[in-house]
Amino acid sequence: MKRIYLDNNATTKVDPEVFDKMLPWFIENYGNEMSNSHSFGWEAREAVDIAREQIASEIGSEPSEIIFTSGATESINIALRGVIKKSYIKPHIITLKTEHKAVLDTLNNLEQNGVEVTYLNVKKNGIIDFSTIKNAIKKNTVLVSVLHGNNEIGVIQPIKIIGEICRENKILFHVDGAQTLGKIILNMNELNIDLFSMSSHKLYGPKGVGALYIRRKNPRVNLIPITTGGGQEKGIRPGTLPVPLIVGFGEAMRLAIKNLELDSKRIKKNER
Ligand SMILES: *Cc1c(COP(=O)(O)O)cnc(C)c1O
Known about the structure:
CATH class: Alpha Beta
Oligomer: single chain
CATH topology: Aspartate Aminotransferase, domain 2
Radius of gyration: 19 Å
Strand order of the largest sheet: 1-7-6-5-4-2-3
Bound molecules: pyridoxal-5'-phosphate
Low-confidence stretches: none
Structural class: alpha/beta
C-alpha cells in the first residue's frame, strides 16, 4: 500500500542530501569539538562552525548569537526560564493562548513558581491585535513570547510590530520560530527579535537538534543557564555537541534557503 504523508508541520523526513552530509560525522570524523589537541577535534569544531555560520547568516545574525540545543522545546525552555532567572522583580510574561505546548506548558510551570503570566486571546482570524498586547503590558513585564507561524492553523503573527512595541517598552521579545525557519526570509534585526527558537526537523533536517538565537547587542540579552556542565555553548547549553546532527541542521538550512523561492511558488500554485 502506498502511503501519503500529510503531516509536515509535525515533522519532515530528512532530505537525502542532508543525510549524505551527516554520515561521515558518525563513523569517520567522530571527534569531540571540544578536543583542541588533535585533528579529530579540530575537524569537528570546523564543521560545527560552518553550520553555525549557515544558520546565523540565514536569520541575519552573528554566529556568536547562535546556541545549539536539542530542538525548539529546549530552546524555548532556556529562553523563558533563563530570562526569569535573571529578573529581580516578580516578573510578568505576556503570551498568546494559541501558542505551542512547548511555550504554554513552560509558562504554566513558571506560574506555579510565582511568575505572573497573561495569556491573550487572538482575533477570529487567529492574529493578535496590537492594542491587546499594549494593554497587557505592566510595570513588571519582562518578556513577550509569540509563535511566529502557527503549526495548527498556519497564521503568521505580525512579529515586526510586536517587536517594536516590546522595544518601546524595554521588554524582551521571544519568538517561537519552529514553523517559519527556512520557509520565509528572516532577519532578527528587522523583526526586532531578541530570542528566537529553532528546530531542525521541521525543515528536512534531523530530529534532536535545534538552536536558540540570543541577541548580543541593542539590547544584549543575558540569560541564566538552566543546566550546568562542561561549559559548551558559552555555558548556556552545556553538553557534548551532536556534530552529525548539527552538520545536518546546517545543510538543511542551506538547502531550505536555496529552494525557498521555488518551493513557495510551487506550493502557492496548488493553493486552491
Ligand atoms: C515542532 C514545534 C516545536 C517543538 O520543536 P522540537 O524541536 O520538536 O522540540 C515548538 N514550537 C512549534 C511551533 C513547533 O511546530
